[in-house]
Write a structure and sequence with these properties.
Layout lengths: L11 H22 L8 E6 L2 E6 L2 H19 L3 E10 L5 E11 L2 H6 L7 H17 L11 E9 L20 E10 L3 E10 L3
Antiparallel strand pairs: 1-2, 3-4, 3-5, 4-7, 6-7
Length: about 200
Amino acid sequence: MAGTQVAGNIKLKGSTEIVAEYFNYGVHNILYQRGIYPAETFAREKKYGLSLFVSTEEELQKYMKNIMTNIKEWLGSMVLQKLVVVITCADTNEVLERWQFDVEDDTSETKENSKPKIKTEKEIHDEIAAVMRQITATITFLPLLETLCNFDLLVYTHKDVESPDTWGETGPQFIANSDEVRLRSFTTTIHKVDTSVSYKKMS
């Protein structure tokens, strides 16, 4: 007799895949919306019921794949704290925008209530779609990036986690005089992800 899977019973592995996929699409969406790479180097993909853009640049794809391999491992071990996309001016290295994805353990409330929270994958994807729409809509209020820009990814984990040898240590790269907008959050019932963007105030 075949086993029955309880609808909405998201396991740690499934949650890890969902959050990592959100990060991947989220970063690509930011790079497209903010014009960090030319629009013609992106391909349209259907995800979460939306049309999203993913870079076709080979070097960027390789870079993202390498990052996501480690992120999946750390999400699965519940040691990832945040992922940050830093956008800087190519000429001066001044930080212009800082997109932050905060990750929290969302199982504590379940343990206290001793009753598992049930959520379907569709419900989670609907929440993610709402965040993606907000990321896309940020172009209506974020200052125009009038200079050539670079981006970097910062990954925060628990202190005892060893990072790959090829990764370097860096500071938080905060923006001294900034405004912040908090976007929607979503939860898989295992991982909760909050998204926000800080940007340099226009003088």
